[in-house]
Hints:
Helix content: 25-40%
Radius of gyration: 20 Å
Number of strands: 14
Mean pLDDT: 89
Shape: elongated
Domain HTH deoR-type: 14-69
Number of domains: 2
Strand order of the largest sheet: 6-5-4-7-10-13-14
CATH class of the largest domain: Alpha Beta
InterPro entries: Carb_Metab_HTH_regulators, DeoR-like_C, DeoR_HTH, NagB/RpiA_transferase-like, WH-like_DNA-bd_sf, WH_DNA-bd_sf
GO molecular function: DNA-binding transcription factor activity
Protein name: DeoR family transcriptional regulator
Order of helices and strands: HHEHHEEHHEHEHEHEEEHEEEEHE
Strand content: 15-25%
Number of helices: 11
Keywords: Repressor, Transcription, Transcription regulation
Low-confidence stretches: 1-5
Amino acid sequence: MQRTRQEAVEGLLPEQREQFILERLRTNGRVLAATLATELQTSEHTIRRHLRDLADQGHCKRVYGGALLLSPAGKPAAVRMGEAVDRKARLAAAAVSIVRPKQIILLDAGSTNVAIAEALPDNAGLTVVTNSPEACLRLLNRPGFDVILVGGRIASGAAGSLGATALLQIQQIRADLCFLGACAFDPDEGVAAFEAEDAELKRAMVKASGQIAIALTSEKLMTAAPFSVAPANAVDHLFVEADVPAERLTTLEAVCDNVMVARP
């Protein structure tokens, strides 16, 4: 006789409950302890213990009322540069549509922002300030660019300069537009980064810029990272991929004024 869904859920072992929660995290990005407790026919205390264990294993970050999937963006820069190249190029093509001639653009480090550097239009009289050596290389010897490379310490595995020198230089800039790198983005938790120094520099970029734009691959959406950068509503332009579900897109549009979907 086939068991009902409730009977199957009630019979789950602890490790099976954790796997159920992890799959739900991977599907939705966020889980609520109260909802899981009802669904799994167990106590919120038990669910919180499972979430704590999953967080200890590096799968999620505990937030008020539940947990968020941990962003997969904590890989070394060299690895990220070789991933999803075509997808990042499509995001970049959408992102540069908001660039106007003669602007001062602050370009954060990151593999998607390197793609944005490649997509920026020639002969537009742009000044590009960046802490990314890779982005700088994509702009050198191209017509119509004044390129300023921010100095500082480049940490092992990082994509750009960090530390006191970089922070001081960013604080002296007044940019029209910033393409901010984001390790993770969630409508409630905002923009986040994996390193404290990186988050500090990103916060300085936000303060130094008139408008903030972020281009995100789908796996970073509805995810978390340890260090907060800015609330979601601080982002003026959000560029996402075409595979973002309609319901999730509606959630993003509720917190960001301009959400643009890149062409597939």
